[in-house]
Amino acid sequence: MVALTAARRELLARQGWDVDRRGLTGAPHIRVVMSELAHVAIVRALRVLGFGLDTVERIPVDEYGRVRTDAVPALDDRTILILQAGEVNTGEFDPFADVLPVARAAGAWVHIDGAFGLWARASRSHRYLTDGVDLADSWTTDGHKWLNTPYDAAMLIVRDAQALSSTMNSDTAYLSGDGDAQKNLTLELSRRARGIGVWAALRTLGSAGVEELVDQCVSLAQRAADGLRGDGFTDLNRVVLNQVLVRADTPEQTIAVRERAVATGQTWFGPSMWHGEPAFRISVSSWRTRAEHIDALVELLRQCRGR
Fold first, then answer.
1. CATH level 3 topology of 2-142+154-193
2. 204-306, what's its fold?
3. Which residues have a Cβ under 8 Å from the Cβ of 84 and sit 6 or more positions away?
4. Beta bridge partners of 235
5. pLDDT tens digit string along 253-307?
6. How far is CA 204 from CA 196, 197, 198, 201, 209, in A?
7. Where are the domains of the chain?
8. N or C end of the chain: which has fewer CB within 10 A?
9. Phi, psi of 59 (to 5 degrees)
């Protein structure tokens, strides 16, 4: 929400419109262009900010869940383009290297939803997935997935620091501070120090530790996909990162397997839909997960499917 607010304010300022004083009534139209598979958090932020979901331009995706470069509409300096690093079901990455140079040349603001996928950049083996992502204007990512920090630890990065601090500025006669004071960077004036958990994880792991964690989770996800495929399940994604999207023989069996597995108390994974039919998604991100846990999960799902 903060990133999109800053994006809209900056694009309007470039059009000579002071949204802080004049509001949005009569303001130049700001377009939003995004993947048809954009995460619900993006959709909610747009709705709350009053963009109007019927006005959002959705980009069709390919078989893997990436936006199709040939379907990206013409962009301009009144456009917010939202792309994904790690689609929530397939783990895929939009083609940043192809799309971002065009967007920057057009003057569009590009935001990257990188909740878990941006951490691929910490791995020399998987960094290629994020090629071109550094050309964006803003990025979001979470700590509660791969860093295993408390759930509400997340990060926003904005290329133009002034655009962020001016948007969120809360200075008054009795509350003053530097532009990078926390109260001038987020919606909240009062909050606990969420960053400590993230700092502690990064300080403990170091860059080598984060890389090892990412690589380990990707390898285990691929192990899960291989095992389930061997037991007759259908894997629906390429497992480029840590997500495994799976179906059984029928929609009814898929739902039954998922519910039986969760009912055992031995595992939990969320339901999902892919191309209009039920699926279940296995997301490997815990530092505690080992090969024996993956093998036990595959065996459990095999048993649940065989009932």
1. Aspartate Aminotransferase; domain 2 (3.40.640)
2. Aspartate Aminotransferase, domain 1 (3.90.1150)
3. 35, 37, 38, 39, 92, 93, 94, 112, 113, 114, 117
4. 246
5. 999 999 999 999 999 877 899 999 999 999 999 999 999 999 999 999 999 998 6
6. 12, 11, 10, 5, 8
7. 2-142+154-193, 204-306
8. C
9. -95, 125
